[in-house]
Amino acid sequence: MSVVKRDTIEKLINETKDINVTIFLPTHKTGEEGKQDSIRLKNLIQKAKNELIEKGWQENRAEELFKKVQSKTEENQFWLHQDKGLALYINEDYFDFFKIPVSPEENYYIAENFLITPLLELQNHHGIYHVLMLSQNETKMFKVAPDVTTKVEFESVPTSMEEHLKYHVHERSIQQHTGTGGKNAMFHGQGGDTNEDDKELELFIKHIENKVTKYLKKENGPLIVAGPEKMVAYYKKANKYSNVLDESIRGNVDNKSAQEIADESWEIARNYFQQDIQSDIERFNDLQGSALISTEIEEIVKSAYYGKVDTLFVPMGHRQFGVFHPDENRVDMSESLNGEAVDLINYAAISAIRTGSTLYGLPQAEVPKNSGLAAIYRYKS
What we know:
This protein has 12 helices and 16 strands. By secondary structure, the chain is α+β, with helices and mostly antiparallel strands. It has 3 domains: 1-123, Translation, Eukaryotic Peptide Chain Release Factor Subunit 1, Chain A, CATH 3.30.960.10; 129-273, Nucleotidyltransferase, domain 5, CATH 3.30.420.60; 274-381, CATH 3.30.1330.30. A hairpin with a 4-residue loop joins β6 and β7 (149-152).
């Protein structure tokens, strides 16, 4: 799970020159397809070079533009640990790249601005949360941030039933010797006293919950609980932390890696962190019939340029080409990137960022009215 913050996108906007090249490539983490990614990137770079030469660049200038890119991508380590996609931003003074968790269309874009719209969705991948993996063999908790997942180490609390029972038997033995009472602890397991087993399991969970809640009160943020049905139920019964999410990951988690649990839990955390998006979509819907919303691309392009847009909903993968003439406040639509034509959705997004608008990159079906672009305005015309 990767994240691209707004200030990163703002930097891309500010780093533009007269000619800027954006390259998007779907990538693969392993296997034969992964080995082909570098070849496919070289082919895209060659196509971009050829187009620049057609635009009047000298061949040596076009070669020089991609030297840093080629130097970086020819490193053996570069192609290890790829995500689902790769985004590269290149001009004569700037080069940067992002490994992204979505698979983009393989393409390149040469224009007066970088193509930033595919990165907008990655702004939604934000926030830090924790995942508690309940297991009788080894209970673990992970802190999941956009770019890294780390294990939280607990001290002075048993993290397995075996440790719990040893500790509990020892504790009761001390109580008996000191005359404080108590019965011998015994975990019967399969075929034993089920009620006694459940009591010990519930007590084990309570000890875990105490430690987790104490830790999370300092950290804040949501907690996702994962594990067998019974253990999850016991945990939620004992829970005293205010931000445990209702949805859990049910089933045996013993063999899940940190990356697997991060990927799986993100599907739950995503809904939590996207509450602002849903709130703004509801706001759009509540404004139906008013002059404060629009799904007309031409109108939105002009409004974004003049700072009227409060919130912009950008569909991922959708493109509309054309030219905006500010002096005449006119938009000419085009079927392709010919002449002065640019990606108008990208142009509107850049204008909206420059004027402080809120932007959301969404799947097409989640954009209000399933439109090619949607906006809430700050004020009526």
